[in-house]
Amino acid sequence: MTLPLLPKSNLSTVDRIVDWSAALDGDVISTATVTRTAGTVTVSNVEWSDTNVRFTIAGGAVGETAIFAHSITTLGGQTLDEALSIYVEAAIGPYGPSTTTKNDILELAYEELARAGYEFDHGPDEIASALRKLDLLMTEEPYDKLGYNAPAGIGGSDINDPSGLPDKGTATVAVALAIRFSPSWGKAMSPQSNAAFARGVNKLRTMVQVIPRVSLRRGTPWGQGNKWRSVWSPFANGMDSATVYVAS
Which domain covers residue 78, as residue numbers? Predict the structure, then answer.
């Protein structure tokens, strides 16, 4: 029988915990392994306490079900095995829908500089240069956290590629790109565009900020707010920030 873990997205990196306490019957874990046997996800950072095993899963292809062989040995000489599985689903952008292509970003940037495509013909070399600038821009903070559909190498984008950018951040990225264009075209950004850009960057930084999550240190008392824990398991085991799965 395979123990299914909570699904993850193809872009996420997640921790999972397997609780062996019921099967151990008072014994404690001495070593543990988690090995992928099917799928393309990666598994790392395998660690264990007396009764729990924690590990990190990353990557994977959309629609696959990855399988793991999980084994522990105990101080009492037992060897226990459990097959694990995890389904990989398509990532949903954390900042809302994304409906633009990279060409849309370029056109918005051109319009900021009064060089819209419907008035000026942008040749292949100019478009290739603009895409390189876009690829480079998206490696910088805070744009690098927006989910941009980056090519394998700088300049490898196609104008018809989905941008991957949340719609709410598209205008600010387009103005940032226009600022990169402006010196080579002898153009200056308007005061209104500069003011809108400053507001937009501040909003992006607020949107992508990460609030650190820290699990309780081993031995921290749960306190009276956790009634059942304060009786049966009064102290944190140091692994309580991830979902726990009970091994058979």
Answer: 2-92+212-246
